[in-house]
């Protein structure tokens, strides 16, 4: 059933929704211009352009992460970490209730969703930092360039492997997040994707 303004309340503020969809777009752009995807795209388009897009997508993600950290303390109620960061025992208890179809509905993020958000933010942070380190060590460019002068091939390979692992783990977390969104939408008969677009949820 469609949720109208008459029976819904605002939950996600406009800046948080803009952050969510911009972050998704930037991550997709970074992923499609990296690794094997980059090599295949480079065959069709200008390789330097693809690298430029990848680097600036990474910078965009870094800026968004910094903004989200700030917004987690000064933003509206449901954007704040204090609203969706729960103790591990509460998260585990909620997951148990989800599996038995008895999980209570939360207006903001539920305990499992909050834990997943933290995990994704950390995964993105690891991906960005390893990417900056790789850019510095391999190309001698970026804000970390001064720390990676004359990097050995072994160090570059190690950083590259770390970056790839961080990216793959972040992709797994995103997949888990999408699965959770579908499961919760079905469990509580609520379109959570639409809620992140409109900012409103059933009261």
TrEMBL record:
**One GO cellular component, as annotated:** plasma membrane
State any GO BP term from the record: respiratory electron transport chain
Location (main, coarse): membrane
Give membrane topology per the record.
Answer: Multi-pass membrane protein
Question: Which molecular function terms from Gene Ontology are attached?
Answer: electron transfer activity; heme binding; iron ion binding
Identify the keywords attached in UniProt to this record, alphabetized: Cell membrane, Electron transport, Heme, Iron, Membrane, Metal-binding, Transmembrane, Transmembrane helix, Transport
Annotated InterPro entries: Cyt_b561_bac/Ni-Hgenase, Di-haem_cyt_TM, Hydrogenase_cytochrome, Ni-dep_Hydgase_cyt-B
Domain Cytochrome b561 bacterial/Ni-hydrogenase as annotated: residue spans: 11-199
Q: Where does this polypeptide localize?
A: Cell membrane
Transmembrane ranges, per UniProt, are: 53-71, 112-137, 169-187
Q: Which family does it belong to?
A: Belongs to the HupC/HyaC/HydC family.
Name by which UniProt lists this protein: Ni/Fe-hydrogenase B-type cytochrome subunit
Organism this protein belongs to: Candidatus Accumulibacter adjunctus
What taxonomic ancestry is recorded? Answer: Bacteria, Pseudomonadati, Pseudomonadota, Betaproteobacteria, Candidatus Accumulibacter
